[in-house]
Specification:
By secondary structure, the protein is of the alpha+beta class. The chain has a single domain, classed as RelE-like (YaeB-like fold, 2-Layer Sandwich), CATH 3.30.2310.20. Helix content is 33%, strand content 27%.
Length: 107
């Protein structure tokens, strides 16, 4: 999909991380919560990240000269990590904010 002149691409690593989160919520019997989380997450990507990705904070563990790696705080507990270029927005990862982010493999 194209939003604000950029192709929005959900990377496999993001999908795998989201699947892990959802599996945990489902195993704990939080089915409705998991469904709501997915809905809110994709709405955030489309409505809050994609229209103006440069307004979000640079991701501190993957600094580049052009500040292309950024993070969005989702639900106060999670980071959505993404890479922005003039033509593409790549959604790379979703992680719990208390995790050791310095060891997170971001491509």
């Amino acid at each position: 999909m194209i939003i604000a002149g950029r192709e929005v691409v959900i990377k496999q690593q993001f999908d795998e991380m989201l699947d892990e989160m959802l599996a945990w919520f489902l195993s704990e019997g939080h089915d409705q919560f998991a469904q709501k989380l997915v809905r809110e997450l994709y709405n955030a990507i489309v409505q809050k990240i994609a229209p103006n990705p440069e307004r979000h904070t640079e991701y501190p563990f993957k600094k580049t000269a052009d500040k292309s790696y950024r993070r969005f705080i989702f639900r106060k507990k999670y980071y959505v990590i993404f890479k922005v270029t003039p033509l593409k927005l790549e959604i790379l990862a979703i992680v719990y904010s208390k995790r050791d982010l310095s060891k997170l493999p971001i491509e």
